[in-house]
Amino acid sequence: MAQIPTNSKKDLFTHIAILISLFLVLFFGFFFVYLPWSTHHGETIQVPNLKGMTVEKMEEAIDSNDLSYEVADCTYTADKPPLTVLSQYPLPNALVKSGRKIYITINSETPPTIKLPTLVGLSVRSAEQQLYIAGLRKGIVHEVNDPRVKEVIEAQAFGKKIEAGASIPKGTMVDLYIGNGTADVDMEIPDFVGKPMDEVTIVLAGMNLKVGKITYEANDAFPAGTVFKQSCATCTGTSVKPGDLIDLWVVGGEDQ
Fold first, then answer.
1. Are 209 and 240 in contact (CB under 8 A)?
2. 113-180 maps to CATH 3.90.190.10
3. How far, CA to CA in Å, does 137 sit from each of 140, 162, 172?
C-alpha cells in the first residue's frame, strides 16, 4: 500500500489537501446526488380534484397518482350525495411529492339530529335565518286565517306539526304557517251574477276570498265579460270564510 511521506511541511499540506478534497466530494455527493435521488427531488405530482367523488373513485384517483389519503373529518351536507368528498387538502392542482397524504372530508350517510329553534312569533325572514343557523331549510310558506299578520304561527315537518326543541334530521325542510291578518269568521257570500268580472275580482280581494276556476261560455242573457254563475266547493250554504275559492262562469272568451 502506497504511503505519502510526511517528512516535510509540503507533505503535510498535501495530506490536508487530500482530506479536504475527500470531504468536499462526500459533502457534495451526499447533498446533491444521494439526497435528490432518494427523495425524488424535483419530481412533483399535481393533486387531482377529488371533490364530489365517491369514496371508491377517490381511492382510485389517489392510487393512480401515487398518493395516500386520510379522512380528516366526516360531516353532513343535505344537498350532497352521501359518502362523497366535500373538501380536501392540499387543494386541487397543488404540486406535491409522491406519497404525500391528502386530507379529505367525507359527507356522512346519516344526518345528525338538530333541535328545532323557536320559530313561532317570528317573521318569515327571521325564521328562515334561524333555520339556516340550525342547519335546517325553509320549506313552503302557507298563509292561514289568523289575526297575526305575516307572523309564524306553526311549523311542520314531514306533514306533522313540530314544536320548538323537537329533534329532526339536519337539512330537513320545515314548512311555515303564517297569519294573513284575517280572523276565521263566516261571511255571507255576495251574489256576483250579472256583475262584470273586473268588479267581482275587486270584491273578492276585499273579502280575502280567492278566484277559483274561471269558465268562459256563451250566454245570451248577459253581456260579454259578465258573471252568470258562481260556485264554492268549500262553502257551507251561503257562508264563506276568508281564503275560500269562488269558481266563476263568465260570458264570452278569455280575452273579454
1. yes
2. no
3. 10, 14, 6
| Domains in the chain: boundaries | 45-107, 113-180, 187-251
Q: At 12, is the pLDDT very low, low, confident or very high (cuts 50, 70, 90)?
A: low
pLDDT in tens, 114-142: 899 999 999 999 999 999 999 899 999 99
- Give dist(CA 94, CA 71) in Å, integer: 19
Q: How far apart are CA 179 and CA 145, in angstroms?
A: 6
Fold of 187-251: Trypsin Inhibitor V; Chain A (3.30.10)
The rounded distance, in Å, linking the Cα atoms of 110 and 53 is 18
For residue 11, what pLDDT is reported?
A: 65
Instruction: Write the CATH number of the domain with boundaries 45-107.
Output: 3.30.10.20
Predicted pLDDT of residue 36: 60
Maximum Cα–Cα distance across the chain: 142
The candidate with the shortest Cα–Cα distance to 105, out of 125, 83, 79, is: 83
List, for residues 59-87, the tens digit of each pLDDT value. 999 999 989 999 999 888 878 888 999 99
38, pLDDT greater than 90: no
